[in-house]
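RVP_2 domain-containing protein
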Amino acid sequence: AISFSEADYEGVRLPHDDPVVVTLMVELFTTKRILIDSDSSADILYKHAFDQLKIPVDQLKPVKTPLVGFAGEMVNPLGSIDLSVVAGTAPRQTQVQMTFLVVDKPSPYNAIIGRPGLNLMEAIVSTRHLLMKFPTRFGVGEARGDQQAARQCYKTAILDHGKEKVLFITNVELRGDVEPERPHPVEDVVQVPLEVGNPERTFQVGSHLGEQE
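Predicted structure tokens:
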């Protein structure tokens, strides 16, 4: 079960109406300034971030349907692309394949995760806690929003509204030419019997726990 408690307010400055802006791994890149927006019917990747992922433009698939913005403006995507997205920290991580629409418009964000991506991750978002939680094989994982980044993005969007200006952010970092880390236990586990003489009824505990724990 996914739930939120008072402990989830840690690091959050209240009161606030800030958006949820998180860091996720897109392909092999740690990508900051990703807006979580359950009102969006599409997952969007802005071209300035797409360019930093070093993906050839010819890999984009054609998209005929334009996007309609909040004010009714029409935006024609450059195309769509399927990318691997990893959320959370090991071992409580989830990895999904999201279809992004690549948009060439100024934005303080690198990407927007909308309803399609949230549903793929089975994610639940609490805007008050600035926190996204999702199920994993090893329990509930989470991606916490960056409140300071959220405020900077919002301020930039307001100040630069109507200007062809992009907040170029050096926050897409190459993780390296390695395979993405797969979820794994943080330590070895040992089997503990629930009933003496019944080897079929056991539970697992971390091998690093002390006897009292």
